[in-house]
């Protein structure tokens, strides 16, 4: 996490900063993957244009596992319904 925070220091005021829901560290938006809820499933929004509330996550397996372990999805997307994370899991879990 120290490396991620160190990268943030050199960023100018015009770069958007978001918080990773996995490790809860702040990073430049371009370093994170945006996730959105499509129906009841989490999908990766690579173009960052899908409608709805987004959650941001570093593109590594540790942050994904941390988010899964802490059960952040209902809070991040502000929903009470069931969420299917299996579709987005392939992007983060190494084969």
Summed up:
The protein contains 4 helices and 5 strands, in the order H-E-E-E-E-E-H-H-H. With 95 residues, it is an alpha+beta fold.
Structure description:
The protein has helices at 2-9, 61-70, 73-77, 86-92, and strands at residues 17-19, 26-28, 33-38, 41-44, 54-57. The chain starts with a helix and ends with a helix. The protein is globular, with a radius of gyration of 13 Å. A three-stranded antiparallel sheet has the order 4-3-5. The chain has a two-stranded antiparallel ribbon with strand order 1-2. The longest helix is centred in the C-terminal third of the chain and has 10 residues, at 61-70. It contains four helices and five strands, in the order αβββββααα.
SSE map:
Layout: H1 2-9, E1 17-19, E2 26-28, E3 33-38, E4 41-44, E5 54-57, H2 61-70, H3 73-77, H4 86-92
Antiparallel strand pairs: 1-2, 3-4, 3-5
What is the straight-line distance between the termini? 23 Å
| Helix content range | 25-40%
Number of strands: 5
Q: Number of helical runs?
A: 4
The whole-angstrom Rg is 13 Å
In the sheet with the most strands, the strands line up as: 4-3-5
Average pLDDT figure: 89
| Low-confidence parts | none
Strand content: 15-25%
Question: Structural class given helices, strands, pairing?
Answer: alpha+beta
Bulk shape: globular
Query: Sheet bearing the most strands, described?
Result: 3 strands, antiparallel
In sequence order, what are the helices and strands, one letter per element? HEEEEEHHH
């Amino acid at each position: 996490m120290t490396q991620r925070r160190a990268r943030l220091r050199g960023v100018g005021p015009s770069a958007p900063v978001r918080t990773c829901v996995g490790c809860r560290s702040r990073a430049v938006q371009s370093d994170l993957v945006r996730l959105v809820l499509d129906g009841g499933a989490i999908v990766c929004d690579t173009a960052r244009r899908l409608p709805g509330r987004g959650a941001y996550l570093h593109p590594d397996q540790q942050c994904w596992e941390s988010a899964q372990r802490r059960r952040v999805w209902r809070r991040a997307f502000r929903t009470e319904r069931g969420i299917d994370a299996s579709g987005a899991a392939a992007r983060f879990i190494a084969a």
